[in-house]
Amino acid sequence: MKLYRLSMMIVALFVLSIATGFAQGPNNSGEYYKPADGKKGAELKTALCKIIYDRNEGGDLSTAYKALWTHFQTTDKKENGKVWDMYSNKRDFEFVTDQDKGSGGTTEGEYYNREHSWPNSWFGAKVMPMYTDLHHMYPTDKLVNNKRANNPFGETNGETFKSANEFSKLGKCTYPGYEGTVFEPNDLYKGDFARTYFYMVTCYEEKLPDWYTNYSESRPTLDGKTYPGLSDWQLEMLLKWAKNDPVSDKETNRNNAVWEIQNNRNPFIDYPELERFIWGDLKDVAFSYDHYSTTGIEDLQDDVQNDEPEAIYSPNGIRLEKMQRGLNIVKTKSRRTIKVVIK
Asked: Which residues in 82-101 are b (16+ Cβ under 10 Å) and which e?
């Protein structure tokens, strides 16, 4: 056990020496994330909550909700100028022209509307700031959106409904841990929605127990606690989705656009694989807002856990009883040398 702890400490600290510096935060975020520096696991999640919760709500609910139509023209525009719909690929919608008129939408490809990817019934419907939070609001095909309803995300064979070209599906969950009805988005956007959900349970972590208690539709997705926040099966599945569908330019560009409108960011887009530092295999590794990297951690972790440290030296060759601030040279029994930087 002592060897394992020491090995993990070496892995954690060694990350600092291989990290790629951002010269402050990524995507021109400056020191936005600095208050989360050095945090890990649940503590990191709470620190991020305090950073990203504060935003420009855009006026009262009615004003902010109406403004979403205009915001989508900036946040969700394809290169061809059409609506970027992540629920259907039936057709390319035209902004404004194909906007939901309040009726119709009984066939796929007729209108697009404003989708709460985190269903609003899970937090009490028309409640600010969740109801108009652009980080989970997307323009989507009206029919497919209505078919999804307030069902959780999941994996399914789609025996209840399949959108055009089987782009998205609705049916009994086939992912272990849940057997209810779920909506499965296309593989192209599973990572997008996973990072959206990581944002939601981080930004609104203090509200999660209330949502779980008072809105039963949320229970397949939530666990009733501020941490982890997500139920076991949902967290496991979303971590897989995020890994299989990495952060794209689309997400980065959208995050920057939302930042300009709403004045807050989704950290899971700015820091690819950040979820691993909160819920995954790196939750014992301290987060560094300006020297962030996961490159090479897996290989190093496997090597170090199977290679017992033998001696620690200072840069000028003096043997140490324990690691000190600055650069440490760690020699292992298999004659490997590892550089460890402690700040």
From this structure: ebbbbbbbbbebebeebbbe
Helix (H, G, I), strand (E, B) or coil at 190: helix
List of the chain residues with pLDDT < 70: 1-23, 295-308, 315-317, 328, 333-339, 341-343
Query: Computed from CA positions of residues 116, 183, 266, 52, in that sequence, does the dihedral angle turn out positive or negative?
Result: positive
Per-residue pLDDT tens digits for 157-197: 999 999 999 999 999 999 999 999 999 999 999 999 999 99
What is the residue type of 147? K
Are 121 and 135 within 8 A, CB to CB?
A: no
With contact defined as beta carbons under 8 Å apart, do 331 and 311 qualify?
yes
Cβ neighbours of residue 151 under 8 Å, at least 6 residues apart? 119, 170, 180, 181, 182, 183
Strands (E), the chain: 112-116, 137-141, 161-162, 169-172, 181-184, 309-313, 319-320, 326-332, 337-342
Contact 141, 108 (CB under 8 A): yes
Cα distance between residue 319 and residue 317, in whole Å: 6
Burial class (CB in 10 A: 0-12, 13-18, 19+), 184: buried
Q: In Å, what is the CA distance from 63 to each residue of 56, 70, 113, 138, 339?
A: 13, 11, 16, 17, 55
- pTM summary value: 0.82
pLDDT digits (tens, 9 = 90+) for 60-79: 999 999 999 999 999 999 99
